[in-house]
Write a structure and sequence with these properties.
By secondary structure, the protein is an all-alpha fold. The protein has helices spanning about 5-10, 15-35, 40-50, 55-80, 95-100, 105-140, 145-160, 165-180, 205-225, 245-250, 255-270, 275-290, 300-315, 320-325, 330-340, 350-355, 355-375, 380-385, 390-410, 415-430, 435-460, 470-500; strands spanning about 185, 190. It is globular and about 70 Å long.
């Protein structure tokens, strides 16, 4: 059962892949510590570099996964020191992290968050090792009709991730699907949205899409906001002692264990992510442990819970990506696209057909997690200085990496123009309050959805009943319908109870 993992450690422990795991962890921590950058932008910037350097698929994925997990570690720094979350998953860490810093415990808070992140990620990686192969065995029973229903379920799950405004979520997903249809239809040879431009016959490249949508739109927002940090004080409080004591760790052991397990379970569910996991873990731990009403005033358990949960969620989100081929989060949607760059189709057959990729990735998560703890405990003060980088230095640096990366991959100015157009679109969507995660999920999953629908109808001779003939398909259709209906039904029911 664990042959893939033994093979994976053989891959991950090669000198080059060990170096890439270390580099990914280091860069991820740096990207995560800068507010607004986060894992998606870090991966988007470095993906074309990894591809053009000719790295094997398993090596590229080890590097990018290291950036993802490292960013979850790094996101806590600005949350604790500046009260500015590094990304959405670090929002809950501000509630007790920054009050701890104001009490003169910034160093212990950073140390505790590193230990909590390590514990949460370790729980999730063990869960990934145990459950991914089992889920892959079940997923082998999926045919085109079941995969089509699974894609519908994945789109429906976005209503949970972006539940406050399902309409905006739907708009983002539809935009992503439309962008994904650009080019020559492989089934019929029909030109779709090419406007007579030969450069669009092959569609819009994933790297162009991801860098434009995230990195360029982020640059535009940085330029708009200038050198402001949302009105927060730029001064970093003194760290004091960085190492957290054993007594403080043991006082938080229950919060770390419970939140790590909860974060993994939430991370496995497609479309949730670290922000949901950290929020649920914090509120759950508050109900269990906050007997003296100290949460929100600098309680270490209130910091340990979201930090363990968001890192566990990051590792858990690899489960649906590797076993079912659907992203568990916006960042794993980007990693899914990276696999497609290498003509690898994620799913249950990866564990038998490409064990070096699946096993190497999981093994590298074990290694990267230890590396991140070793980096973040002694070097917290050094990483914290990254927060002082002014935007007039940061913006040109990100722009340079984005432009060089795209041009290096395509050697064509058309790709640069497309990147800029998509970047402006991403900027406008963010100004309108439309999340970019549904856009990228629509782009990635739309093509897979179309392919499986065509295959299913081809098998049935055009009979649409094939889409709900199996028990798996029916279960997925019911689950998707429930996810779509609940956001509308629950508020109405609460309203009637309130009036009653």
């Amino acid at each position: 059962m664990f042959d893939f993992l033994i093979h994976g450690f053989g891959v991950a422990l090669t000198p080059m892949n060990l170096g890439l795991a270390f580099l990914g962890a280091l860069l991820g921590t740096l990207f995560g510590s800068l507010p607004g950058i986060g894992p998606i932008n870090g991966i988007a910037i470095l993906m074309p570099l990894a591809y053009t350097l000719g790295l094997p698929a398993e090596s590229a994925l080890i590097l990018l996964a290291g950036i993802y997990t490292g960013s979850e570690y790094g996101g806590r720094m600005s949350s604790i020191l500046l009260n500015v979350p590094g990304d959405a998953g670090a929002v809950m860490s501000t509630l007790d992290g920054h009050p701890l810093a104001k009490k003169g415990l910034a160093g212990p808070a950073l140390g505790l968050s590193a230990v909590s992140s390590f514990v949460g990620a370790t729980i999730a990686i063990i869960g990934l090792t145990l459950f991914a192969p089992l889920l892959a065995e079940v997923a082998v029973m999926f045919g085109p009709a079941e995969f089509f229903a699974l894609m519908v379920f994945a789109f429906a799950s976005m209503s949970v991730m972006m539940g406050k405004d399902p309409l905006k979520t739907a708009i983002g997903a539809i935009l992503g699907i439309l962008i994904g249809t650009v080019g020559v239809d492989s089934g019929t040879g029909v030109m779709r949205y090419t406007f007579g431009m030969a450069e669009l016959y092959d569609g819009i490249d994933f790297v162009v899409m991801i860098i434009g949508l995230f990195a360029i739109s982020e640059i535009l927002l940085m330029l708009e906001h200038g050198n402001r940090r949302d009105g927060q004080d730029d001064g970093i409080p003194p760290l004091g002692r960085v190492f957290v004591s054993l007594k403080e760790i043991l006082a938080c052991k229950g919060a770390m264990g419970r939140s790590g397990l909860l974060g993994f379970i939430i991370g496995v569910l497609p479309g949730t992510g670290a922000s949901v996991a950290s929020a649920v873990a914090y509120t759950t731990e508050k109900r269990i442990s906050d007997k003296d009403d100290t949460f929100g005033q600098g309680d270490m358990r209130g910091l340990a819970a979201p930090e363990a949960a968001n890192n566990a969620s990051a590792a858990g989100s690899f489960v649906p990506m590797l076993t079912l081929g659907i992203p568990g989060s916006g960042t794993t949607a980007v990693l899914l696209g990276a696999l497609m760059l290498y003509n690898i189709t994620p799913g249950p057959m990866m564990f038998t057909e490409r064990p070096e990729v699946a096993g190497g990735l999981i093994a590298s998560l074990y290694i990267g997690n230890v590396v991140l703890l070793a980096l973040n405990l002694p070097l917290a003060g050094l990483f914290a200085r990254v927060l002082t980088i002014p935007r007039w230095v940061l913006v040109p640096g990100i722009a340079l990496l984005a432009f060089v990366g795209v041009y290096q991959l395509h050697s064509d100015l058309t790709a640069i123009y497309l990147m800029l157009i998509i970047g402006i679109l991403g900027y406008l969507l963010r100004k309108l309050g439309i999340s970019l995660a549904p856009v990228i999920l629509g782009y990635v999953l739309g093509g897979l959805m179309e392919q499986n629908l065509r295959r299913a109808l081809s098998i049935s001779g055009g009979d649409i009943d094939i889409l709900w003939q199996s028990g798996i398909s029916v279960g997925l259709w019911i689950a998707a319908a429930a996810l779509l209906i609940l956001p509308w039904v629950l508020p109405a029911a609460k309203g009637r109870l309130a009036r009653g």
